[in-house]
Design goal:
Elements lengths: L3 E2 L3 H8 L3 H7 L7 E3 L5 E12 L7 E10 L4 E3 L11 H26 L6 H7 L18 H7 L1 H16 L1
Antiparallel strand pairs: 1-4, 2-3, 3-4, 4-5
Length: about 170
């Protein structure tokens, strides 16, 4: 895939400036590829769409970003929040450990105070020494948010929901 149409590579590259290398790495991405998202861990791409722009050109277009939908249904931007290639599990763990140990305890208090329960599982598990991520750097089932559980682990999620409904009926 070319990142420009009806213009020259030089002009397209000039328009994108420092983002050119990142865009160049994005043109080879496709469904199933891993990227690191702004959530701080890796996710698989469900869909990727180039964003074409003609700003400042009399004619022609160039790709200024890639819109990415992840398997869990999250929406990402290659330029603004994704990292390619995906980070190794060790780097993801180091990021979360650094965050948890340096600001995580105060943040956890704020999370609990405001009822944001979906984000307290990973830091708490790390503080307890638990395994949190799989070999791809994606969170294990018990550390996913509900919408991620439903998208990434549909059978396990459906079983969990059925059990919860049965216990509510009792």
């Amino acid at each position: 895939m070319r990142l420009w149409y009806n213009t020259t590579k030089r002009i397209a590259k000039k328009k994108m400036g420092k983002n050119w290398a990142k865009l160049n790495s994005g043109k080879d991405l496709g469904p199933g590829d891993l990227i690191t998202t702004c959530k701080g861990y890796n996710e698989r791409i469900e869909e990727i769409t180039p964003v074409w722009n003609n700003y400042g050109l009399a004619k022609g277009e160039y790709v200024s970003d890639f819109d990415i939908i992840t398997e869990s249904g999250g929406s990402c931007s290659l330029i603004h929040c994704c990292i390619v290639p995906a980070r190794p599990v060790e780097e993801i763990l180091n990021y979360w450990l650094y965050f948890t140990l340096n600001q995580g305890r105060e943040w956890l208090k704020e999370v609990k105070k405001n009822g944001w329960s979906c984000w307290d599982r990973i830091p708490e598990a790390l503080l307890e020494g638990k395994e949190v991520f799989d070999k791809d750097g994606q969170p294990l089932y018990e550390f996913c948010q509900d919408y991620e559980k439903q998208a990434r682990f549909p059978e396990q999620w459906a079983t969990e929901v059925r059990k919860a409904d049965e216990s509510d009926d009792s």
